[in-house]
Amino acid sequence: MASFENNPVNLDAIPQWESVSFYPISPKYRFLIIGNTVLIWLLALAILAVVVITSDEGTGMETAVWISAAVFLTVLAAIYLIFNLISFRRRGYAIRQHDVLYRAGIFSQYTLVIPIKHIQHIKVKTSVLGRLLGLVTVELFTAGAGKDMHIAGLDNPHALALQQHLAERVSTIDERSRLEHE
Prior knowledge:
This protein is an alpha+beta fold. The chain has helices at 29-54, 60-90, 128-133, 156-180; strands at residues 23-24, 92-95, 99-104, 110-115, 119-125, 135-142, 149-155. Strands 1-2-3-4 form a 4-stranded antiparallel β-sheet. It starts with 22 loop residues before the first strand and ends with a helix.
């Protein structure tokens, strides 16, 4: 019977992800953020306008409420836009030999690290506005209950090359694993 060992790990010997150089998201992604925010804001104002137009005319007080609601929606959209544009500068990703990293956040900044061997599926998707700007999102789906990764704002050719590279790495890892277990 083999004896069980559980030796301590020297934390200084662990590779540090903090020193990794991250690739920025495409600068065109700012236009996607602005476009999406403006479209949602216009839709909200249109719904508000329909409600105002179809409601019965009453006192001047009701008009003040509708104007206040429109101002509130505008301020809310502006705050949302500002936070998204600030977070844009923080977003980045890196590919290393054994893992993929993604960082984001404003107040609560985080870095997500996914081992390549845990990637089960890679998906490249885009929206209508993203397609017009030549931008896509690469989604990495992991095995088990792990966290999936979504890297939004990549130029289409770069994203397809990334998808191809990761698919080849996953395939190589799967093949090695299969051969080791035979």
